[in-house]
Amino acid sequence: MCATSSHRRVGLADVVRGRVLFGGDYNPEQWPEEVWHEDVRLMREAGVNSVTLGVFSWAKIEPRPGAREFGWLDRLMDLVHENGIGVVLATPTSSPPSWLGRLHPDTLPRDADGRTEWWGGRQHFSHSSATYRRHAAAITEDLAARYGSHPALTMWHINNEYCTYDWGDEAAGTFRRWLRDRYGTLDALNTAWGTAFWSQGYGDWEEVLPPRRAHYLNNPTQVLDFKRYTSDMLLECYVAERDIVRRHSPDLPVTTNFMPMWAGQDAWRWAGEEDVVSVDLYPDPRDPFGAQEGALVQDMTRSQARGPWMLMEQAAGSVNWRGVNHPKPRGLNRLWSLQAVARGADAVCYFQWRQSRQGAEKFHSGMLGHAGEQGRTYQEVRQLGAELRRIGPQVTGQHNPSQVAILHEWHAWWAGEQDGRLSREVGYQQVVRAWHRALWEAHITTDFAHPEHDLSAYRLVVVPQLYLLTDTAIDNLVAYVRGGGTLVCGFLTGIADEDDRVRPGGMDGRLRELFGIRTLHEWWPLGPGEYAECDGFRGTLWSEEIDAGTEETEDVVALSRYKGGELDGLPAVLRRGRAWYVSTLPEPAALRELLEGVAAGAGVRPVLDGLPTQVEAVRRGDLLFVLNHGREPVTVEVPGEYRDLLGERRVTDTLALGRYGVAVLSP
Amino acid sequence: MCATSSHRRVGLADVVRGRVLFGGDYNPEQWPEEVWHEDVRLMREAGVNSVTLGVFSWAKIEPRPGAREFGWLDRLMDLVHENGIGVVLATPTSSPPSWLGRLHPDTLPRDADGRTEWWGGRQHFSHSSATYRRHAAAITEDLAARYGSHPALTMWHINNEYCTYDWGDEAAGTFRRWLRDRYGTLDALNTAWGTAFWSQGYGDWEEVLPPRRAHYLNNPTQVLDFKRYTSDMLLECYVAERDIVRRHSPDLPVTTNFMPMWAGQDAWRWAGEEDVVSVDLYPDPRDPFGAQEGALVQDMTRSQARGPWMLMEQAAGSVNWRGVNHPKPRGLNRLWSLQAVARGADAVCYFQWRQSRQGAEKFHSGMLGHAGEQGRTYQEVRQLGAELRRIGPQVTGQHNPSQVAILHEWHAWWAGEQDGRLSREVGYQQVVRAWHRALWEAHITTDFAHPEHDLSAYRLVVVPQLYLLTDTAIDNLVAYVRGGGTLVCGFLTGIADEDDRVRPGGMDGRLRELFGIRTLHEWWPLGPGEYAECDGFRGTLWSEEIDAGTEETEDVVALSRYKGGELDGLPAVLRRGRAWYVSTLPEPAALRELLEGVAAGAGVRPVLDGLPTQVEAVRRGDLLFVLNHGREPVTVEVPGEYRDLLGERRVTDTLALGRYGVAVLSP
Amino acid sequence: MCATSSHRRVGLADVVRGRVLFGGDYNPEQWPEEVWHEDVRLMREAGVNSVTLGVFSWAKIEPRPGAREFGWLDRLMDLVHENGIGVVLATPTSSPPSWLGRLHPDTLPRDADGRTEWWGGRQHFSHSSATYRRHAAAITEDLAARYGSHPALTMWHINNEYCTYDWGDEAAGTFRRWLRDRYGTLDALNTAWGTAFWSQGYGDWEEVLPPRRAHYLNNPTQVLDFKRYTSDMLLECYVAERDIVRRHSPDLPVTTNFMPMWAGQDAWRWAGEEDVVSVDLYPDPRDPFGAQEGALVQDMTRSQARGPWMLMEQAAGSVNWRGVNHPKPRGLNRLWSLQAVARGADAVCYFQWRQSRQGAEKFHSGMLGHAGEQGRTYQEVRQLGAELRRIGPQVTGQHNPSQVAILHEWHAWWAGEQDGRLSREVGYQQVVRAWHRALWEAHITTDFAHPEHDLSAYRLVVVPQLYLLTDTAIDNLVAYVRGGGTLVCGFLTGIADEDDRVRPGGMDGRLRELFGIRTLHEWWPLGPGEYAECDGFRGTLWSEEIDAGTEETEDVVALSRYKGGELDGLPAVLRRGRAWYVSTLPEPAALRELLEGVAAGAGVRPVLDGLPTQVEAVRRGDLLFVLNHGREPVTVEVPGEYRDLLGERRVTDTLALGRYGVAVLSP
């Protein structure tokens, strides 16, 4: 099912070779060539050793249909190479030239309302357009033929942030093709989609459409399949280009950059098709939980990579797509970059090297900002480059598996967040973030895993919420507990099968059995700002009317019960042996305490004892990273003798960290 | 004008025959046939005596154009019949099969922006499509021919929740046809629409369109007529199918289910075309005034039916279309169902019997929920079925006219809630609900009436707000007061004539004369959260700068005056004899007190004296229903000796009711 | 560049001739002719001396293609003339007849999503439609030929509130034509738009489109040029009609009415094409700063006119397009009308004379409202007419230049308010209003000026925010300071050049030099409700990380520094000689105090000393207008001896004003 176990032919290690990759997207086509020479000088001074070229160069390379203008890129590749900087070369297929849309309007996507997405922005391509695919393959072929063996080239980068949708007519055709592959027959599709409801039965494949604008709610399985299909169509585009560049560069790894926890791609499946798993990461510098968001995405990406990974894009300062965009205060860029290294990154890169003066992202920061060489941003980038050079040999290639896994899965997210559900207040990401935060604040490092993965190596498995679970996944969870594992499971888990069909009893029987739930009478979602009082804590978002049937199954323990209201006295948290069920979302401190207790029972310890919440500790190889996310200096206990690779100081038992301070402790 | 006075050939009484109808929508096409047998067993155990079949069966019956698959329905009708359950058979025309949209895109509606509403949801049909109407007639004809005499059949149900709009080209044609019928000449249309404003005059019928997307405000009379036309087009669809089934089942009544106080249909007009008036009712279980919303819709439906009516749909637990959907707490389903019976329902039905496992409404509750037979929901349904069986013989067929009528009218609603008015804060439904609530909390049972109805039987007539009134309606109100009736009238009444033309003086002169208003200088709408202080209360939403001309007309009394602000000292509540004018919306307690006083003066008494607000008392026939809408037990005075039909207890002067408790007291 | 310096052939003075024009839009086509006679009687009684006819008369004049129905207008012109009322005659081209849209759908605009704007509202014309322009020219030609010499005619009024956009195919063609004119070559366009970013390079003119719906952010220079183009296309429409009427009425002035500070038109450029500059003005009667909004628009319009101007539209009472629309309380219409006269208006007119009974604006007030002749509104209009008659001879034609100018420019507004910027909280109008309010509350009368205007006559120039500045404008500012002028400049000024290209260093080097900014490290926008503490005040919206390089340039003074937070100790307000830079938006009292101080230093005094904030004082010619915007009476010092032209009283040193009171003091 999940392709992540396939062996990678080549990988990040082949590029890294003891150095943390440091650099970013480089778009010199925006500048006269004299600027290029200043660029490479400043790159060298900053320790840049890798740049990504070509992401948005299609129109430059092919300004007219069939033209090929490679001269500028030849010069650029050579220049970069002469300066000892490696190149991640991108296929330019995420932003086709204007002539493609004009001559071939079939390459433009349509939304659910039938509106065209025109050129003039970016990503104006339909994944389903045969014309688009043909032109993308041609430019990829020629690019790979020309540069596939260039000495500067270290890695291929396909497209950029795949994230488009198409509801148009050609997409309707590929949707039907995808559905035929999935279901074989219309009968099977009708059964899977439950088309008997609302008279939606299909008698001819040509009747099947993407879920376009409808009078009232669309068929939810159709919507779910459309998301699956979209992820798979984009993956087809990726694979097609990957296979071309592989032919020309058999010994170089291939990647494409994910957006962080992006709803549009089943990244478990995609990761299996990549040689290097890379991600873009943009927490809000003003978000008090920005560091935890970073940790979550880093844990997720490391788990997809099953080892070191690449931070392809981050911002040296502000982004420009929020309502209010804050720069990074002094030290934060360094802190968050080293956090990524702590959690497995072997590459720390940025969008982009030099901040644009024109275009839609001219207020998105660069490593070299509008303020130039004297600007604080570049000065800090330079310092960071030097530090990464220092720690590179000790950290790169290191990978420490965790004892705890959080289960996450895209199909459950897609199915669970549709219209027509019981509460729009419950957001999948918010719930996953709340559970990860509890473990992060408890200083317990976690992996993420797919619910069908082999979980036996983990002491503790946590399921924040998996509305949809396949039979295989459910059996996997049950077997995991039977095999001695400890499982904690949040509400709205195991409700639906893979066709988004509600399981009998409203929740899968095997899971109800596992947790000791005899009858799940009713779900009681909580409104905005509403709480459910429980023994020892307050629950948010959700509550449930459960009959635990305690008289028959004496091993079922209600660890906390609802107090007052309609659910008074009913169980809020159930435990049956090593299986825990949490029918609400406890407030943060309560969830942390609950998970700390369960983890301790499962033999899982925090990285360090007694750390304050805002200090993060992570082990990578033999190194211990300690990061102060607070704006106040702090002193923490680190029993033992260490050398701090950054400060070149000895540390014995006690470590002082300034505001946003980091230590990389070597025993 | 209003067709409700037409004699009904056959009616609900012909079906009811002493039993409260109990059951609901039954969509067994979603389930394998073995489940059907479990269904009828559980229906019997729950006392179900009526199911609605076929609402969404078109694609099942006609899976390909012209096909007829009746075998499954034959078996189902027979099975249900063998188990003593009657069938309300629906024409399946609200959700056409996918092939119809594909082969005939002209059957799909377009919105005001020109966007198509595709199949894949429900109700994707254009009321104006000749192709749709032809196919709907054909399936109706064959269905009626096959089952019109089936012994299980008790009633025909046409379509489902008519609620669609169409701004497309074929609709433009039927709109013009409707306008020709209304106005005869373009000159008359130009006059009615006031097209001299903004250069909108029409010189050719073909220039006239539905009110599509425009640069700025659409012509308001065009918008009003488009709503009238839409209601009439849907009614044409209904009548066409009704006439077909009547031909095959001359002795069976025909209905279609209204949505509660739905803006899209002039239900006064529709009710006149139905043999049985039925409604769907879904108050939010968490709404503290949910019971009053129920009472309002029940009073409205009873008034449209002029006697017993059918509760076609309600939810046994939660719905799934609100932002946060709560289940019904223990006892609430029983309480609200018996409230409907108290206010005239002879049928208590649900959407739907068995909760769906698939499709867009799988989280909408059923009588038999996901939790199954042991679930609380089904257990409570079963108890209710038994109770309805017990009280059926005494209550069915009973109808008690009220002494008080609230006037309500769709055209006034449509005209008054357009863009370009003085305050978007004033919502018609909100104002009507506020006035009904005042009477409901005063324990005064009310009918609803159309402003052109004969009102002479009422002691008190209340007009919360009728922005648009025809001359006939105004004369009717004046005559009602002249004839001895008491009238209380809220602001924004009598402003416009039936073409939405503002009447001279800003409010009809006959009404100003009636209330003693010499000059209505200015309207002063109040902002959100703003109040107008008046003697004795605070007004909300609205205030007015009125010159009552007291020196000339000494019989005009200002019962309350504005205090402070620009209106200081001007009248807020005016009385001239038996005519009262309220120029603001008093806060709830003040409006209740005001109406209690006026009612007392008109000789109208509450059902019971001294009841707390949350206890509702209603008489039906000789029975006295007493319902505790509170979560705390309560004891109330009920002078006299009664037998409680539900509890089988004797009640003398004092009645104790538990949380959500109900008593049906027989003298 | 800016055409405002062209000499006006004829102007407002030719019409005014010692009378304040008083009247408004008159749309008698909505009424039977008997009403016209009542209209002129009531006009005469109210002192009306000018009406605007024909604004929405196209369908009345040309009910069928090519027809000409002038009889009614002949009668109307004669009637009005006989009653001594002048006519401002409008070309009716803002609202084409329905047949035009039906026969020529190419005349209808399309929005960025491709949706048509249909007839049935108003302004449903595409500025780019050759068909529309041809029909508009024809009706204008015939109208001008017929009435160009009519004795009632005093002025031509072209179209009405030009404000439309078009993204359709014909507009794409005119956009390309406009771009060719601007750039000459595609290379120049590619450079200006920075199309190297995101692969947007154009190789063929036909590829260039209006900025239609895109997947992600549109190219910002394309968006900016589309706004420039739209303003210019509308101006082409205006000029075409103007030239026609000028041919027929060479001695009459021509105008078109601006909306107040409307984003869609570069009014500096437009004003240069008008003989009379006129504006519509609708502050919210409930806005506590409504009077200041009025003053701002009046100052702006006077500056565009470089002398007396025309208030073309205001409301005698409420409008009908806000969420909640309040009438004007007693006295407010007089107060705000006299404020306009104080600030240079020689015409006080309304939309509209008689309130409509039908159509989309029937709840927009008229001089003669629904309440009629006895209504308060008309009574107050009548009083105002008498007062204007009294003061007309002394005020008309007078123009007093100010010592202070606020710089304002549309291209800076357009470029600065796009998507993809650092803060959506920063609104251009809000910032300009805040700075104008500070000066208004300091009783310092201001002009507005274009940044390329000759500023040498001003003692103080204030730049609230000009994100985009041309090189010419920057040199102009620098020269102004070098020449002895005092300049105060707010944040986000001089960031971009005229192609929206960020200037090196993030802010123009000449300006950084002028203010003493060595390095602008980072912008720190503030969130909603967030403050930046500074010495002496709190800043809002924005803050900046600036290195002022004080050690080298000792003449740079930090007048206030940030306190606490990331910017602790950095300069918030910088001064270098007569150039001031304010890197945040100080709270109102602080900004007022700051500007009072700078103004005093530049030798600028308030109109009167010691006035409370809510009292406004303005000089026009020799007259001193004193206006009390408060609801409480007030007494103020006015040193000297005066005669109050309104109250016919003598005033010596002290003036008492009632609620909303006004005095027009003559020495």
From TrEMBL, chains A, B, C:
Superkingdom of origin: Bacteria
Enzyme class name: hydrolase
All residue ranges annotated as the Beta-galactosidase C-terminal domain in the record: 615-666
One of the GO BP terms on file: galactose metabolic process
Occurrences of domain Glycoside hydrolase family 42 N-terminal (ranges): 25-390
CDD domains assigned: A4_beta-galactosidase_middle_domain (cd03143)
EC code: 3.2.1.23
GO cellular component terms attached to this protein's record: beta-galactosidase complex
Molecular function as annotated in GO: beta-galactosidase activity
Reaction(s) catalysed by this chain's protein: Hydrolysis of terminal non-reducing beta-D-galactose residues in beta-D-galactosides
InterPro entries in the record: Beta_galactosidase_C (IPR013739), Beta_galactosidase_Trimer (IPR013738), Class_I_gatase-like (IPR029062), GH (IPR017853), Glyco_hydro_42 (IPR003476), Glyco_hydro_42_N (IPR013529), Glyco_hydro_b (IPR013780)
Gene3D superfamilies: 3.40.50.880, Glycosidases, Golgi alpha-mannosidase II
Binding-site residues for substrate, renumbered to this chain: R122, N160, W321
Key words of the record: Glycosidase, Hydrolase
Family: Belongs to the glycosyl hydrolase 42 family.
PANTHER family referenced in this protein's UniProt entry, alphabetically: BETA-GALACTOSIDASE GANA
Protein name in UniProt: Beta-galactosidase
Origin species: Streptomyces dioscori
